[in-house]
Amino acid sequence: MKVDIWSDIRCPFCYIGKRRFEEALSRFEHKDHIEVTWHSFELDPAMKTQPDKNPLEYLAEIKGQTLQWSEQMHEQLTGTAAAAGLTFNFEKCVVANSFDAHRLIQFAKTKDLGDQAKERLLKAYFTEGANIADHPTLLQLGIDTGLEKEEVEHVLQVGAFTEEVRSDEATAQRLGIRGVPFFVVDQQYGISGAQMPDTFLEALEHAWKEKEKIDAVSQVTPTENSDSCGVDGNC
User: Fold this and answer.
1) pLDDT grade, residue 98 (50/70/90)?
2) pTM assigned to the model
3) Is 28 exposed, middle or buried (0-12, 13-18, 19+ CB in 10 A)?
4) How far is the C-alpha of 70 from the C-alpha of 91, rounded, in Å?
5) What topology is assigned to 2-210 in CATH?
6) Which of 33, 99, 178, 213 is the most buried (most CB within 10 A)?
């Protein structure tokens, strides 16, 4: 059964949601039969990378709020993250465009390292204060993930996997996804936001039961030329 997740590296709730989903998945009886796929979503595609910009001031400015409001909000988010087992250092965060980081994740997916790349980038951004728009930084993060140095260099230099990022974003638009994280379970059930683990677990269990019903029906499809009688009385 598939779980598709749209998220952005710059989204704190995406990191929190990842941890909560992982907790739910660890408690799911059929976890070994779940395929998780990460999809690209840019909260601000036009965002300009500004390494010297104070991240708390930046958020206050784009939201039209005070610095005090930004500080309080980030303090609350830090506490929420800690409850999920994460360390957020917002004062270290670099105001950076996430497009190239998404390209790196798309490449990692082709090597079955999509989840590892997603995790490494989220930690780099929220905990370590890495500039996720900086190519040398992304190169090292790719190597940390287990990718080959030469291949990562090529991907970053030639703009590879741009179409894959845009395709994910176009799909999100068609699905009406306007915020992240957004989870789609078995291509049928949408879950918006960093829900609590019990909510994710309930969705997984419900989707699995529905899948079992469909599988059971498909298994009783009659074979051709079988010996049987139809509702019209013909045998």
Assistant:
1) very high
2) 0.90
3) middle
4) 11
5) Glutaredoxin (3.40.30)
6) 99
